[in-house]
Amino acid sequence: MSSYPFETSAILDGIRRWVEIESPTERPDQLNKLADVVAGGYRDLPAAIERIAGRERCGDHLIARSSWGQGVPGILVLSHLDTVHPMGFIKRLPFKTNGDSAFGPGAYDMKGGAYLAYHAFRQICADDARPPLGITHLYVSDEEIGSPTSRALIEAEGRKAKYVLVTEPARNGGKVVTGRKGVGRFDVFIKGAPAHAGERPEHCRSAIRELANVIQTLEAMNDLSRGITVNVGVVRGGTKPNVIAEQAHAEVDLRVPAMAHADELVSRILRITSRTDGVRLKVSGGLNRPPYEKSKAGATLYEHARQLAAEIGFELLDAFSGGGSDANFTAPHTATLDGLGVDGKGAHTHHEQLYISSIEPRARLLYRLYQTLR
C-alpha cells in the first residue's frame, strides 16, 4: 500500500480549499461556489458531472458518475457540502493546524470526509485497471436541515446502487456507523381565548397553559430503556405578561432506534388532543428520517471494510449513533456503511477539528472499498 499516493499534506491542502469556501445551508450562492470547485476537480477524470439546480432557497446538488460500470448496480458515495456554521464564522475559526488537529468550519462534518472520497476516486482513475463496480458520488446541499430537496434524489440513487458509502465523520476514535436513530419533527399549534390577566381571567382559555399540558404528555413518552427520546426544543407563546395567551407553539424532536418504535410514537404524538374546552390544538409533522437499522447486508459490508482496515493497519470498530444522516434514507433497502469520513471532534462547534493522522488510513480504506466491492 505504501506505493499509492495518499500523501497527507496534499489531501489536507485539498480539504483546506473546500473548508475556506464557507457554505452554510442558507447560502445557496456560497454552496454553488463550492460546487463549482468540486465539479472542476472532475474535469480531467473519466467521469460525467450532472448538476441539479437548487430550489426552495437551497444550493445545487452534484452527481459525479464514473465512465465505467454504470449499467449495473454499483457504489453510491453520499456526501454533503453544507455546514451549520453561519457566514463569516471562518474569521472566528480559521483553517489552521495545531499538532494532530486541523481546525475549520465543516472540516470534520463533513468536508474532510467528502474530500477523502473524491481523492480516493482520483487514485482509482489513475490505476491501469478499472474496479468491478461503477462509482457514483452524490454531493447534496441541504443535509444539515434534513435534506428536504435532496431526499428523493438520495433514495432514487440509493435504490439503484448495490452499496452505499457515507462520508459522515467517524465516531469516538475512528468508529464507522452501522446504525442510527430515526428522526421525527413535529409542530404543535394551540389557539385559546385571550383576556386581561387581572380583570376577567375566568373568561380566558390560556394557550400557554394548554401547551404545558402537552409538554407533560410529550415528556412522558421518553423511554431511555428502549432508546426513545422526545424533546420539546422550542416554545413560543403570548404577547404581554398581563394578557392571557391566545396562541402558543412548540417544536418537537423525536428519536427512535427502530421502525416499530417510529410507528408507535408518531401515531401517539399526532393523536394528542386538548384537555381544555374551548382550546384548539393541532399537531403536524412526522418522521423526517427513518431509522437506520443494521441489516444483514449492512453487517456484511462492515465486515468487509473491517478486514480491509486490518490489512491497511488499523482496527475498524462500529458504533450506533443517535443522530440522523442521509444514510437513514438508503439503509432500509441498500447495504449502507456510514462514518467513513475523517476522525476528529467538535462537529457544529467553535472548536471543530479533524485529526490529521486519520486522513491517510481512511483515504486508503475508501480506495480499497472502491477496488474490492463487487
From TrEMBL:
PROSITE patterns: ARGE_DAPE_CPG2_1 (PS00758)
Cofactor: Zn(2+)
Annotated GO MF terms: hydrolase activity; metal ion binding
InterPro entries in alphabetical order: ArgE/DapE_CS, Bact_exopeptidase_dim_dom, Pept_M20_glutamate_carboxypep, Peptidase_M20, Peptidase_M20_dimer, Peptidase_M20A
Entry keywords, A to Z: Hydrolase, Metal-binding, Zinc
Enzyme active site: D82, E143 (proton acceptor)
Domain Peptidase M20 dimerisation: 178-272
Keyword GTP-binding annotated: no
One Pfam family from the record: M20_dimer
PANTHER family per the UniProt record, alphabetical: ACETYLORNITHINE DEACETYLASE, BLL0789 PROTEIN
Name by which UniProt lists this protein: M20/M25/M40 family metallo-hydrolase
